[in-house]
Amino acid sequence: MTAEAPAVWRELGRSGAIERCSGPDSARALGELLTDLDSRYPVGVVLSVCVQIASVIPLLRTLAPGDGGAADVFDAALSGKAMVALAATDEAAAGSDLMDLGTRIRQETGGPRLDGGKRWITNALWADHLLVLARSRETRHFTSFAWVLLPAGRAVVRPGAEALFTGAGIGDIDFTDVRLDANHVVGRPGRAMAEFVRAMAGERLAGGLWARALCRRVLRQTYRRLRERPGGTGVLWDNAAVRDRFARCLVASSALDAEVAAASAGPLRPASAMLLKVRCADTVELVLSGCVDLLGAESFQDGGLAWLRAETAMFGIAGGASGALLQGIAQHADDLLTEVVT
Fold this sequence. Notes:
342 residues, alpha+beta, Butyryl-CoA Dehydrogenase, subunit A, domain 2, four-stranded mixed sheet, 11 helices, flavoprotein, acyl-CoA dehydrogenase activity, FAD, Acyl-CoA_Oxase/DH_mid-dom
């Protein structure tokens, strides 16, 4: 299991890229960074950076004021000196059903305790600190959650994926009767879930920027190979059916480009963020599947496009499964149709 991601994170901190790409109005800088990373590193390394810049850093920026411990972790993460894993997906509930998560803070005589588990957590294996979304009250309500920020050594971490997502440090985290210090519960009471949802909008924009870069890269590579590989009396690109299939990939990629540009231009509302997330998943699947088919057997070489297609299926799962998001989009139908008409 490669530990390349921590070295990349440290370098981004030294260069100021983390701060430059994680603040307000940073979409252009973040897009340029993700394009560069996508061209040089495996999917897992880009995922490691993307989650921290798009979600962890903004959350820590919200939690840091008035909290010395969170402020110290924020400064260390911003400078690349510390990695923080966002532990939200819960072992006791479906990834898209955070309201039923089972990781909870228990108030005991000797102080608060954390119980539960998180699964498929990016950067779990590299993290110096864990930012944990936990239940603080039993009531099933938006305000029944809190943030716990604690050293990673307080929990038991196990590798969660070793073949795919090399470099992402994905792991499962076990919190069994973990004693919490008074300063480990951070942020304003009852605000954790709202802050998490707001952070997801930023992560979905980052996902769009990354998906755009990835699709462009794959299409350029495929186009070059189609113009090089012999086919019939010429090259594969001479075949009208090949050009038609490739053009459909270009159409989908161009539609994603337009949606990402619109999302980057201003505040991203929840419904628009969901639309972008589903668009990313659909476009990446269409483009990768199309290019795998066009290149045939060579796609199945070690590290080939078929492998990349398997990894990028996470665009339809991580940060909210497409099926669950479609339900949310349907609930916004009136507003979305009004926007289209006007």
